[in-house]
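It is worth pausing here to work through a concrete case rather than discussing structure prediction in the abstract. The textbook approach is simple: state the sequence, then state the predicted structure, then interpret. We follow exactly that order.
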Amino acid sequence: MKVYTRGGDGGLTTLLGGRRVGKQDARVEAYGTVDELSAAVGLAAIAFEAEAPRGKGPAAAKELRLIQADLFVIGARLAGRCALAQRPPSTPAVSP
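Step two, the predicted structure:
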């Protein structure tokens, strides 16, 4: 299935807020990686939830769902207009 965004493919993608950046931009790579990690965490949570009837895994599944929620927030911040400017003051900066 093809998806048409009417934005063309000049090697650019649109971040939240409308800013266009290159598809090789570090933030695009970062939020893609965070998204893949979130998917893996979700699969692990499903596996633990499947063990719930046998009394195994509900606590681990709950913890994984909390981690996944945090990953969604991180991905959204990375894709946002001012991802670095929105970093809470108590969070250490990460150098590229």
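Step three, interpretation. The two ends are 36 Å apart (CA to CA). The beta strands are 12-14, 20-22.
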